[in-house]
Amino acid sequence: MACNMHGVGSSLGNYIKDMAQHLSPPSATHPAWQPCGAHHVAVYGTLRAGGVNDIARLRGGIVRTGTTTLNGTLHDMGWYPGLTLEGDQPVLAEVYPLDDALEQVMDGIEGIWPHDVGEYAKRVLTRPVTHMDGSVQPLDVLVYEALPAFVQNAPVIHAGDWIAWYAAQGSPHSDEPFALRTGNSAAP
Length: 188
What we know:
This protein is α+β, with helices and mostly antiparallel strands. It has a single domain (35-169), classed as Gamma-glutamyl cyclotransferase-like (Hypothetical upf0131 protein ytfp, Roll). It contains 5 helices and 6 strands, in the order αβαββαββαβα. Strands 1, 2, 3, 4, 5 and 6 form a 6-stranded antiparallel sheet that branches. The model is unreliable at 1-17, 19-24 and 178-188 (pLDDT under 50). InterPro entries: AIG2-like_dom, GGCT-like, GGCT-like_sf.
């Protein structure tokens, strides 16, 4: 796989090696990777600042564009959340710039590519983003939405900030971030 990994944090090295071992040439069962077309991503769980998969560990020097709210239903998947976009619970999300290399790595973390494990789907939404300077601008953002069948038996989280909610539960994260998604939701 040839992709520009400029600025990707060194803590990602083992993840990339694992991902490369699982890659196979595009075929009917493993299609070629496709970008979503958005230039920003909205993250609401472990990829947020301070999360076990903090996006800054994926892209050194990345600067948060701002924040937004995503409306839906937040689910407790154990060590990470799943958000369905059905429902009216406002959920805090951080917005970051997105390029193809970062999106491809995130697709691996979310179990969408190179093998879709059936947990998440990529959605592009237009959301009002509050920039760091306080200004508000509508932006197209990529959101990784949990599929309803995946979260159907998961407890609903009645909180809009997953990082704060998880910290209040007193559950420690593993210190091994960026595990490949294999369909098993156990901690990495």
